[in-house]
Amino acid sequence: MKKIILVLLLTTIAMMSSSLMASGGFKTSPANVDVTDMASLQRGAKVFTDYCLSCHSAKFVRFNRVATDLGMTEGEVMDNLNHLGVKFGGTMTAVMTNDYAKQSFGAVPPDLSLVARSRGVDWLYTYLTGFYADSSKTTGHNNVIFKDVGMPNIFWKEEGVKEAVYDEHEGEKVLVGTKVIEKGTMAPEEFDTMIRDLVTFLSYIGEPNQSYRKSLGVYVLIFLVVLFGFAYAMKKDFWKDVH
Q1: Residue range of the domain that includes 72
Q2: Regarding beta strands 141-143 and 172-183, do their DSSP bridges make them parallel or antiparallel, or are they unpaired?
Q3: What is the CATH number of the domain that holds 129?
Q4: Is residue 62 part of a domain?
């Protein structure tokens, strides 16, 4: 038993360490998304198609499925989300072609269908709000959780320009956050809501059935509790004459 507990403890520590390394040692901020919030999902879908779909695709997501799950009509989706005019049953394809991406950036931007599942919603929220000005970079920006990222800060006009904040730790400068040095077109609360809506939508497309899965889990737990009651009663009846 002690060996099993030790193995579980070591596994947990290893997972926490790998997660910390993946984030560059910077603590993530809670995204606090709610995939049952239809209004947030609809706003997030609009932000995704207006900003992200220019370069990134979501090839596992179909417009008609988004319409069904988010309570939108075909007209609303085709007019507001489908900028390339693909079929209603088509997938979310990036506006930028792969050839142009390779010529301009040297690589094709990654597909975002499963990014929320691979990175996590807290990581995504921290990443999207973690850009700061860095004149040494080609894009003019760097990121608190993704050092030397190649992606430019596409929300700098809305968020404003931020600079890195450092603290001394054992004689070394450690990045601890950012602060706004030039205001954007949005108030901080408004921008924060927009990013949370976007992360909510990315969480949804990563697993469209997650709300159903979570609700089903409640019924499964109730079933197991009832089953335990019957099993315990049967055990008591079976062993009542055994001394």
Answers
A1: 2-229
A2: unpaired
A3: 1.10.760.10
A4: yes
Q: What percent of the chain has pLDDT above 70? A: 89
Return d(Cα 225, Cα 11) in angstroms, integer.
Answer: 29
On whether residue 12 sits in a domain, the answer given is yes
149/161 Cα distance (integer angstroms)? 17
- Closest to 130 (Cα-Cα) out of 73, 187, 192, 76: 192
Whether residue 131 is predicted with pLDDT greater than 60 in this model: the reply is yes
| 33 burial type by CB count under 10 A (0-12 exposed, 13-18 middle, 19+ buried) | buried
Residue 52, phi then psi, degrees to nearest 5: -80, -35
Structure tokens at 21: 């390394």
pTM of the model: 0.80
Q: What's the Rg (C-alpha) of the chain?
A: 23
Write the DSSP assignment of 33-64 as a string of letters.
Answer: --TT-HHHHHHHHHHHHHHGGGT--EEEEEHH
Q: Are 133 and 141 in contact (CB under 8 A)?
A: yes
Over 90: is that where the pLDDT of 20 sits?
Answer: no
